[in-house]
Amino acid sequence: MGSFVSALKTLIILLSISYSYQNGAKPNLPVSINAMDLEINSVHNGCSKPAENQWVYKCVNNKCIREHNHVLRKFNESMSLLTCSMTCGDVKLWPYPTIETQVEMKPLKFTLDALLLRLHTPYSNVRTYFRSVFKIFLGDLKGMQKQKTLKNFDHDKVIKDPIIKYDEISVNSLGNSTYDESDIDILPINVFINKCPDLSLNLDTDESYELHTKFNAGRYEANITANSFFGARHALSTLQQLMWFDERGHWWRTFSKIDIVDAPRFRYRGLMLDTSRHYISIDAIKRTIGAMSHAKLNRFHWHITDSQSFPFVSKHYPELAEYGAYSRKETYTLDNIRDVTSFAKLRGIQIITEIDAPAHAGNGWDWGPKKGLGDLSLCINQQPWTKFCGQPPCGQLNPKNNNTLFVLQKLYEELLDATETTDYFHLGGDEVNMNCWKQYFEGSELQDIWYQFTLDAADRLTIANKNITPKFVAVWSSDLTKRLRLPRSRFAVQIWTGNNDAYALLRKGYNVVFSQVSAWYLDCGFGSYLPGGVGVCDPYRSWQTVYGHRPWKKLYPYRKQILGGEACLWTEQVSEWQLDTRFWPRAAALGERLWSDPNQHIRNVFKRMSIFRNRLVDLGIEAEAIFPQYCAQNPGECD
User: Which residues are CB-contacts of 330 (< 8 A; sequence separation ≥ 6)?
Assistant: First the structure.
């Protein structure tokens, strides 16, 4: 019986190809792999067909309806799940554009060979960088095509059969296995950047863009207009989301007409990653930054040091890493930081480094006396830790040692040079423990010491920045910021506490970045590594919680002072092996909230989030699932 079924399936495939020849269409078979042999052998070896071949879809009342594909009975009337999802109902973009979105939902077929870049800009530096951006754009598309096509192969056969190898499965050899013709013969992408030559992202950068397409007689033109390199990059990212590879037909598809005008609501759209409590490799950091670019997040806040470790290798003070890193291999050099900065710039992202001070400064600072610099930090490893710091090991910089400030100045100088960030810098500044300092400065007003240290550190930052004070010097919200003493013209506050603190700061004229623990701390909800539940911030913050949080909702009179927001991932219980699932797709929810802050029905949000999450997976990001696979295959059934 089994051999009869196999023979019948083979006959069906042969008849379908014969039918294509009779109707004047030639099968476009792969070059490196014999598609017929692969198809027939996979049937005989019991390799399952992908879901799109088992189930087919029709768009009914803006809803994709799943039907079983009974021996290709309705093949020409139905669609794959992805094509149906993309063309049924509203446009599936993430983040959703802000100003104008008009898309004709008719899909057109094309191959990647049709794509070409035509760049119009008088600035040679912009031209060079945008060509690299276009290469990234093409590389992502090719990677997604390869990822989707590999799902069709019998992986056991690929491993066992020396004729079929993974390295032979190039994009060009995959071909288009449907036997109809491409709708698009040539697809030029015309990019116009005429107003700004600056390649350094700052909080005044114009990130707006326009994207308009037209199609006529096999020629499809995409026209991108932007005032800056960064706006044009965002436009290309939007265009990429409006292209999808249909693994059922083995064609790329896009929409017949697109008109989008877009600009971000907030200037600062960030993610913070702590690389002290667990070392995170450069490759993992780059993977995170790559995913950020697709969600139009634009600030990577690198909390590079803390009391647990000091992995940054300073050229002036290598002792910090020698005493503070987990190992000599688990460190970041200036070349590493420059490499990450260059990688991020091409993806529209600014790197913001943070050397936390004065608290959270432990063993890395324990070498001062041996070098004749005195105690750079106090209370290092002091017990019981619960009395002298928030979590072990303890350590807090010595505010009365000028050598401590000079070391900080040199660190700031190195990091400013490596990241090319001059308008926004983060000093740290949270969770100072008065019991630590009280042992050394009995009788002094400890809040005054903290205040003066913060001013001194900011002065050293100005010196490090060639005597130019950055426009925004950021500190965490704390007992110090509650006193509203820091000069509001000089300091911005990253608020991780509640809206009462935010309101008080805004009312006094401070600029703020929201990072409230109640919604945007992505490490919460996994219990505690400490006895007694110390440090727990349950419950888990779902992507819906991240998305639904709008701390500015009742603060519109102060909207100009709200720079934006940032989701934070502290890594007490996160290594790089959990990095993708902790960040994604929850960080994408933040991306849309800060880019367009839309007011859409949650059903539409779910549909768009599902497609964006799957796109991240196709791009190599191990994003967390947002609902059962059944819900993904049956859009709208789980609403």
Answer: 279, 309, 311
Q: In the predicted model, what is the mean pLDDT of residues 434-455? A: 94
Task: Give the strand pairing for 251-262 and 100-110.
Answer: antiparallel
Residue 596 has what DSSP assignment?
T
Average pLDDT over residues 495-511: 95
Nearby residues of 407 by Cβ (< 8 Å), 6 or more positions away: 316, 317, 320, 373, 376
Tell me the three state secondary structure of residue 256: strand
How many degrees, rounded to 5, is the angle at CA 531 between CA 530 and CA 536? 55
User: Do 606 and 632 contact (CB within 8 A), yes or no?
Assistant: no
Alpha-carbon gap, residue 359 to 1, rounded angstroms? 74
Which of 4-13, 68-77, 232-241, 432-441 has the least mean pLDDT?
Answer: 4-13
CATH node for 268-599: 3.20.20.80
Residue-wise DSSP of 36-76 = HHHHHHHHHTTPPPPHHHHEEEEEETTEEEEEE-STTTTGG
- The full 3-state SS of 392-448, as one line of letters, equals CCCCEECCCCHHHHHHHHHHHHHHHHHHCCCCEEEEECCCCCHHHHHCCCCCCCHHH
- What are the φ and ψ backbone dihedral angles of 123, each rounded to 5 degrees? -100, 115
Residue in this structure with the two tokens 């997040």, named with its chain if needed: 297
Same fold, 97-154+182-263 and 268-599: no
> Where does residue 573 rank: exposed (0-12), middle (13-18), buried (19+ CB within 10 A)?
middle
Q: Where are the domains of the chain?
A: 54-89+603-638, 97-154+182-263, 268-599
Structure tokens, 512? 């703020």
Please say whether the structural domain 97-154+182-263 has been given the CATH code 3.30.379.10: yes
Tell me if residue 323 falls in helix, strand or coil: helix
* Those residues with Cβ within 8 angstroms of residue 10's Cβ, 6 or more apart along the chain or in another chain: 40, 43
pLDDT digits (tens, 9 = 90+) for 151-200: 655 445 444 443 333 333 334 444 444 446 899 999 999 999 999 999 99
- Give me 468's structure tokens: 């130019």
Query: Which ranges of 517-628 does DSSP label H, i.e. alpha helix?
Result: 517-520, 543-548, 579-583, 586-595, 602-618
Express each pLDDT in 57-115 by its tens digit: 999 998 999 988 764 455 556 788 999 999 999 999 999 999 999 999 999 999 999 99
C-alpha 302/C-alpha 304 separation (Å) is 5
Q: What phi and psi, each to the nearest 5 degrees, are found at residue 105?
A: -85, 10
Average pLDDT over residues 627-638: 89
Q: Helix (H, G, I), strand (E, B), or coil: what is residue 564?
A: strand
* Residues in contact with 48: Cβ distance below 8 Å, sequence separation at least 6, in sequence order: 54
First-to-final CA distance of the chain: 42
The yes-or-no answer on residue 431 being catalytic is yes
Query: Quick one: 178 exposed, middle or buried, by C-beta within 10 A (0-12, 13-18, 19+)?
Result: middle
Of the candidates 616, 599, 632, the residue with the CA atom closest to the CA atom of residue 237: 616
The two tokens of residue 329 are: 């291999």
Residue 566 contacts residue 514 (beta carbons within 8 Å): yes
Choice among 221, 322, 420, 431 that is catalytic: 431
* Rg (alpha carbons) of the chain, rounded to whole number: 28
